[in-house]
Amino acid sequence: MEDLQRLLQHDRALSVSTLPDKGRCLFTTRDFSPGEIILSEEPYVSVPNKSSGESRCDWCFTSSNIKRCSSCHVVWYCGSRCQKSDWKLHRLECQLLSQLEKNRIRSLTPSIRLMVKLYLKKKLQDEKVIPTTVMDNYSLVKNLVSQVGENQLVLYAQMASLVNIILQWPDLNIKETAENFSKLACNAHTICDSELIPLGTGLYPVVSIINHSCYPNSVLVFEGRMATVRAMQHIPKGSEGQDVDIRESAVLEGYRCKNHTCDGFLLRDPESKGFICQQCGLVRDIEEILKIAGEEKTMSEKASAALSSGHTNESLDMYLMVEKLQVKLCHSGSIKLMRTREIILKILMEVQDWKKALTYCRLTIPVYERVYPTTHPLRGLQYYTCGKLNWEGGMWLQWQHEDNIRERDGCVVSVATVLAVIFAMLSREWLLGQTEEAIKSITQAVDVLRITHGTTTPFMKELLGKLEEARAEASYKLSSMDDQ
Ligand SMILES: [Zn+2]
Ligand SMILES: [Zn+2]
Ligand SMILES: [Zn+2]
């Protein structure tokens, strides 16, 4: 840890400190400007997602021109460069995988593979076959924190015994392996491409030190397997992010005013038994709030049970009732209400009620814009989607990727997905092929994404290219209008 401290301080102007209620955080020791890279890290170990019909290179995650490893027939590579980079570790993994029965191989999940690779890498670093560096060593992994629930431990123990079957190490500690699974669950990152489509999972122990509450004004993006944390807003020296604005959280998580025409936010009054509207001064009784909250909770549980058992229409009616109760209960800018509307939106799309879906899309946008800061990549992507659609038309979104979304990053990616659909539909309503609109959206996208993604990645080059094309098309249209 001292070595890492020294390296971060010297090379990156960062320091690690422990805060009483947050755990370890990274602090900046100089100013960072928007778009500047705060930290880059290669994964300690990583694996591609496993999805039916699509395989990816084990090293760089590309899905094009890949070939199966000829001895284990499990792992894929795009070429000899990636295969060579992975060889020291895969040589051992390959032997183990080759010995497995066919049905065991089918049940090989990315989490199991990640754990096997974790142990193999530790072994190889202990034996000095793979060099150890300050940013790349097992003690960083060992220092990661985890929280485990009782019921998960049973599952993790089962997974650990599977790892044992694969590794066949006589002195493997099952309990420790189970604990390591909970560490992975808490700390592993979903590796996404520039459009936030999940490609795989990786363990980035140094990036993990920056937990999200520490740095709301930075963003994590992936360039291939490399994780990069960039500053989104100017981050002054010594900062570890902004204090949570009381007003903002009262809107996002709080109750609405008793007067339904009032947009004020409510704060708990320590003297009385209620919440006071900070705009008009009306008091909302706590008993009344608890009553609606109780009804809302019961209905939510019923609705989600109906949805997961496939009773789509029934669940839609229930979710509409949940929404009604939440409108009574929550501020119009509340995240809870937005999440309910996202679910309703998804169901409406499933039953292909496009008109109503569009109404719900529009309802979610203001909250979304509130939750994500202006330079958040999702907002950039949302403009990008909009521009792409205005220009090319049609749905480009691939729903099947939804299956790959993992719980941890679930909320972020599902919002992106929903928004992409929202804009797909909005743009279909607004005339397709409007070049001017497209230029406006792409320009907005570029402004955001040049900060979050840099300007040298292939995705950004494509985007900048599209902007040029759209501009050329617009000026051609203008000049042909002059001719008439
Ligand atoms: Zn590759
Ligand atoms: Zn192999
Ligand atoms: Zn009020």
TrEMBL record:
GO cellular component, one term: nucleus
Residue span, MYND-type domain: 57-94
Pfam families: SET, zf-MYND
InterPro entries in the cross-refs: H3K4_H4K5_MeTrfase (IPR050869), SET_dom (IPR001214), SET_dom_sf (IPR046341), TPR-like_helical_dom_sf (IPR011990), Znf_MYND (IPR002893)
Keywords assigned by UniProt, alphabetized: Metal-binding, Zinc, Zinc-finger
Signal peptide stretch: none
Domain SET: from-to ranges: 12-246
Record carries keyword Zinc: yes
PANTHER family documented for this protein: EG:BACR7C10.4 PROTEIN, HISTONE-LYSINE N-METHYLTRANSFERASE SMYD
Protein name: Histone-lysine N-methyltransferase ASHR1
